[in-house]
Design a protein that fits this description.
With 451 residues, the protein is of the alpha/beta class. It contains 14 helices and 18 strands. A hairpin with a 6-residue loop joins strand 2 and strand 3.
């Protein structure tokens, strides 16, 4: 699979400003580029003030032991955890999610998501794109025939040239070689719409994003000067403009220049600028600091941020699920997500920021002989807040064993339609693949009960 990165090598940094050889000012270049993109694609821009932070439980969180507990079920179903009452009358959550339990009036829970897959890769694609993967089969890795993820589609309808990406995924990249998880890319829309992929731990003292760090000896002013100095290369303008390779290089150089000179974005990655109090509030661990970084990115204008809670199968708890959830997985998510929702609200950002906690499927109702739960696509849960969501609601219902929805079943397509609508994109919009074939973006229905 061809991957597209925004990282800058020393050679690329030295080339920054070479677009000055075209004799065009930066504002003019950006206007022309945006205009050309719209004209070439025929896409109607669909802008919205709503943004999204998608918190992804890689490998699939158990709904039985978190958001859809079954205290009256037999022991082999209900598990080892006790439920505690939330601020939502009659709604119980896991005892190991105490911080979220305290603020249940700020979010709503859907307990009736369902699909037919029990495969990690296919299910990940299904939920992260809102469409079934073309030609899907067991362990089918990512390809450019896949449907676009949410940030890829957003970028398709809302291209920008201000140095701020439309999508950022962090802090992990879902792969277990040779398997590469689909749903992380813009798929059939092409590499230019892919989100940025950050693979560094924001909890580390030396955290930085290399693609936003200039090579030794260079600074913003020197790069700006370099662009001015290269204007004497105008004689190459005609040759470059006639060259498809030259045009592509020009576009990449403009983007590189924008990235390098975007102090706002670079500053957003400086989580070290936050007070010790704020950082402790989120939790001094990878999950907490990743959620804090997500807030900082949304704050500077990144519309879609995906935070992966672990690598590809972090929540794939086939063995010893209860100590794993209690000691390792639930405490950071509980603390970090509760802090995020409260922080967004205090900053006046929650109404315009759609926050979702979800995974690719649920876990089996019956605990297996290794004290774990296996893959289960027929029923799973998700948590929603902000972006217009009405807090304090419990939507849908599963059967007494948590095996199948019995009220208001929703599909990944419905999830996708909801995401797109919040982002200001009509789910029925037309997109075109690399062969210029028209396709409907999404075939689901918005989960109206959330709003």
């Amino acid at each position: 699979m061809h991957t597209h990165t925004k990282g800058l090598t020393r050679r690329e940094v030295l080339q920054v400003g070479y677009s000055g050889a075209l004799g065009l000012g930066l504002p003019s270049l950006l206007r022309q580029r945006a205009s050309a993109a719209d004209s070439e694609s025929g896409v109607q821009r669909q802008e919205s003030g709503k943004k999204m932070i998608l918190v992804w439980t890689t490998g699939a969180m158990s709904h039985h032991d978190t958001l859809d507990m079954k205290p009256d079920a037999p022991a082999e179903i209900r598990g080892q955890f006790n439920p505690i009452q939330t601020k939502i009358p009659g709604y119980l959550m896991c005892e190991h999610m105490p911080e979220l339990t305290k603020i249940a009036d700020k979010f709503s829970v859907v307990r009736s998501f369902t699909h037919k897959d029990n495969n990690h890769l296919m299910s990940t694609h299904h939920v992260l794109t809102g469409q079934f993967q073309p030609g899907a089969f067991f362990d089918k890795i990512a390809s450019r025939t896949d449907w676009p993820n949410y940030s890829g589609a957003y970028d398709y309808f809302n291209p920008r040239n201000d140095g701020i990406p439309n999508g950022v995924n962090l802090p992990t990249y879902m792969q277990q070689p040779p398997l590469l998880w689909p749903g992380q890319y813009a798929g059939l829309l092409g590499a230019k719409h892919d989100p940025w992929q950050i693979t560094a731990d924001p909890n580390k003292d030396d955290f930085k994003v290399d693609s936003l760090t200039l090579a030794a000896g260079l600074d913003i002013q020197r790069v700006t000067d370099r662009q001015s100095l290269l204007t004497d290369l105008n004689k190459q303008q005609l040759r470059l403009e006639r060259s498809a390779v030259g045009n592509r290089m020009k576009s990449e150089q403009e983007e590189a220049y924008n990235i390098l000179t975007s102090r706002k974005l670079a500053n957003a990655f400086q989580v070290q600028q936050e007070s010790s109090e704020v950082r402790e509030r989120y939790g001094r661990h990878t999950t907490g600091q990743s959620l804090l970084l997500a807030r900082r990115l949304v704050e500077v204008g990144v519309p879609v941020v995906q935070v992966n809670i672990g690598n590809a199968q972090n929540w794939d708890n086939h063995n010893n699920i209860f100590p794993t959830l209690k000691d390792r997985l639930l405490p950071p998510v509980d603390k970090g997500l509760a802090a995020l929702l409260q922080d967004l609200e205090e900053r006046g950002m929650l109404e315009d920021t759609f926050v979702v906690l979800i995974g690719e499927f649920g876990r089996t109702p019956k605990i297996n002989d290794k004290a774990g739960r296996d893959h289960w696509g027929p029923c799973f849960s998700a948590l929603f807040a902000g972006g217009g969501v009405q807090g304090g609601r419990v939507i849908g219902e599963s059967d007494p064993h948590g095996g199948y929805p019995v009220k208001k079943p929703f599909s990944p397509e419905d999830f996708g339609a909801t995401v797109y609508s919040v982002l200001g994109i009509d789910p029925a919009s037309e997109i075109r693949d690399r062969f210029d074939r028209p396709l409907r973006l999404n075939s689901g229905s918005v989960i109206s009960e959330l709003f």
